[in-house]
Amino acid sequence: MIRSARHPHLAPSQTPEPYPQIPDDLQATAITLRSEGVTVTLLPDAGLRVGSIVIGGSELLVRENGHPATWGIFPMAPWAGRMANATFTDLHGTAHQFPTTWGDHAFHGRLYHCSANEQSVAGDGRSAVMYAPLDRAAGWPLDARAEVSAVLHGTAAAGELTITLTLIAGVEQEVTIGWHPCFRRFVLDATQRHERGEEGILAFAPTGVLARDPAAPGLHLTEVVLPAADGGVAAPGSGAAWDDPFVGVTTPPQIRWGDDLVMELDADSDATHWMVYDPDEALCVEPQIGPPDAFHRGGAVHLQAGEQLRLPLTLRWTSNL
Length: 321
Known about the structure:
Beta-galactosidase, Chain A, domain 5; 12-stranded antiparallel sheet; 9-stranded antiparallel sheet; 27 strands
C-alpha cells in the first residue's frame, strides 16, 4: 500500500471560496440528485460531468474555476489522458489534428467540451442519464455517441454514487475512455464556503507505474513499468509529486479526509490504468481503459460500428459529517 504525497504546509482556508456551487450559466439545465443528507449535481452543458457532491453539508469536489479540465468529475472520451502532439492517424490512414490543450499535446478527449443533446431523470430523483454525440461538430472526426448515467444510493453516513460512461461507435474506430475526478484537498463547508478538516490522502496498492518518457515530457513509456513508491512529503512550491499512470490496481483506491470521511473508488476490472495527479490544489484519481497516448503507443480499444466501451465508477463513502 502506498499513499499520495502529504502536504503539511497546507491548511484549510478560512477565506470564503469565490466559486459558486453551480455557475449561473449552467443552472438552467443542471440536474440534482438527492438522498438523505447527500446532494449530487450533474451538468449536461459542462461535458456531462458531476459538478458537485455535497455530503453532510461538505463539498468534496473542486468547483468550476475557469478551466474545464480542473474541476468536478468529467468523462474522458474518445481518448483518455494525453495525445502526443495533438494528432492521430485513424484506421484508414487519415491523419487528424486537434487543438492543443496541454503544451504541444491534447488531453482528455472531446466529450468534456460538449453539451448533452438529451437527458432524463428518474421520478425518485436518484438517477439520471445524459447523452451527447461525438462527431465532427463535437471535434471528433469519427462518428460515436456517449452516454453518462448516474445512480445515487444511501445516506450521508454511508452511501454510494455510481457513474457510468458508455461510448457507442458509429463507425469502426479505436478509442480509450476514462473518468477524471478532481477531489478537494480539504472539504468545503457548502454553506459558509470555507474549508475545514484534514487533508485528503489517497491510499492504494498498484503493482507498478509507467516510466516517464525522457524524450517527451508529460508522456510515459507504456512498455516500461517501474516499482510504485510512496508519495512522501511534498515541499512548498514543489508541484505535483505524481502525474503518472499506475497499473495493477485490483482493490479500490481509498481517499481519507481524517476521521470525517472515507471515499472508496471502485472501477470496473476493465480499467487498465489509474492516472494520479496531486498538485496542492486538488487530488485527481483517474481510472481509464487504455494507457495515455494509446493512439501512438498502443493499448487503444478497437470497436466495430455498433460496438460499445463502458466504464462504471462507484464512489462509496462512510462519513461522520
